[in-house]
Amino acid sequence: MSRRCELTGKGVLVGHKVSHSNIKTKRRFLPNLVNVTLRSEALGRAVRLRISANALKSVDHRGGLDAFLVKARDVELSPRALVLKRQVVKKLAPAS
Q: Which of 57, 42, 48 is nearest to 8 (CA)?
């Protein structure tokens, strides 16, 4: 399982840990990933995703999973999330 957010694409960053004597040692900055179950109103079912805490706040801010997926760019989404986006757009297209 990769350390990458399925919705925003946020992943591991690399930097330096700097000691008091200014010795630089490589370190990794890991994203704050959480396993969540989000409800899709358009599909009428729950979806399990591994997303960052920041993405969870963004989903709430945009008004739910469906609104987030419709607005998100395809290059940021994981293959699973991209399939979900296509399903949501297909369901919402006749309603518009």
A: 57
